[in-house]
Amino acid sequence: MAKGTTTIVSMTGFVEYARVFKENMDENDYHVKTQGQYNVNFYPETTEGFEAYFQAGAPVSSMGHDTIKIGNSELATGKFLKLKRPNLHPIVAEWGGAPTVFDFREGVSMKKWDFAADGEVGNGSKVTVKVSVWADGKKSIQRLEKIAIHELVEFTGSTGGSSVDMDNF
Predict the structure, then answer these.
(1) Residue 165 resides in a domain
(2) Nearest CA to 101 among 76, 82, 81, 118?
C-alpha cells in the first residue's frame, strides 16, 4: 500500500438513518463483499465540519458524485456526508465491524450505548463522530470510527425527522 497519513476528524452534528449497530446494519445487495455495512447520513453542525473533513484529505467528489449531499433542511446546514464502515474489511479485520457507540447523554464518558436498553438512534439525534481519513495525495479512504450520542431523538420506526415526507410521497 502507498504511504499516506491518517487523520482523525471529530465533528459534531446530527444524524439521519443511523445504521450503526449489528442489529440494524445495512445488508443491501450492494454490500455483499463486506457482508453488510454500517452507515449514517451525518449533518455537521457548521460548515467547519466539512472543512476539517476535506482538509484531512477526503475528496470533494468521487466518481463524478459530490461528497456533500443536499438533505433535510431542518438539520444543521441541510447538507450531509454519508459516513460508513464495512462489516468485514477484506484486508484488515479491525477496520471492519460496527463503530463504537458511546452514551454522552449525561456528559462525556466511556459508557457504551446498549442497543437492547437504549434502542436505535432516531433521525435528528445530536452526535459527535470520529472519522479516520487516510490520504496519500492521489487517493483517500474514509472510515467511521466512533459515535457519541449527546441528545437522542427516539427512533419510532417511521420517517420522523426524515427528509422524505411519506404522506405526500
Answers:
(1) no
(2) 118
